[in-house]
């Protein structure tokens, strides 16, 4: 994969563990930081699917997770899901 890929992060609204709806964009902060640190251009796109995060490279979904599984805020360096997502983007075709 080219070093500077266009990565679309599709994310839906989040529902907390207690069931209350909330904006999940704060949980994407670390994921976005990790991808941008690798030189990728990141675009956020809202979708209607609850608690969903999908990374799309070249029109293909290369990574998918529950938004609640991402660490809240931070730089993403210690979040194992962010590292998994980073590797998925690097291995995308």
Computed CA radius of gyration, to the nearest angstrom: 12 Å
Strand order within the widest beta sheet: 4-1-5-6
At the first level of CATH, the class is Alpha Beta
What is the subunit arrangement here? single chain
Number of strands: 6
What profile does the largest beta sheet have? 4 strands, mixed
CATH topology: Glutaredoxin
First and last CA, distance: 6 Å
SS strand fraction? 25-35%
Q: Report the uncertain regions.
A: none
What's the domain count?
1
Helix share, percent? 10-25%
In round numbers, the mean pLDDT is 89
CATH architecture tag = 3-Layer(aba) Sandwich
**Secondary-structure element order, N to C:** EEEHEEEH
Structural class: alpha+beta
Explain what the structure shows.
- The chain is of the alpha+beta class and 93 residues long.
- It has a single domain (6-90), classed as 3-Layer(aba) Sandwich (Glutaredoxin).
- Helices cover 22% and strands 31% of the residues.
- The protein has helices spanning 29-37, 80-90, and strands at residues 6-11, 14-15, 21-22, 41-46, 52-57, 60-66.
- The strands form two sheets. Strands 4-1-5-6 form a four-stranded mixed sheet, covered by helices on one side. A two-stranded antiparallel ribbon has the order 2-3.
- A hairpin with a 5-residue loop joins strand 2 and strand 3 (21-22).
- It is globular.
- The N and C termini lie close together (6 Å).
């Amino acid at each position: 994969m080219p070093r500077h890929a266009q990565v679309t992060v599709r994310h839906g609204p989040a529902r907390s563990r207690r069931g209350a709806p909330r904006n999940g964009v704060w949980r994407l902060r670390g994921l976005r930081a990790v991808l941008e640190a690798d030189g990728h251009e990141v675009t956020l796109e809202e979708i209607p699917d609850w608690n969903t995060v999908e990374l799309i490279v070249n029109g293909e979904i290369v990574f998918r997770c529950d938004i609640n599984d991402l660490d809240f805020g931070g730089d993403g360096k210690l979040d194992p899901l962010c590292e998994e997502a980073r590797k998925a983007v690097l291995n995308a075709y």
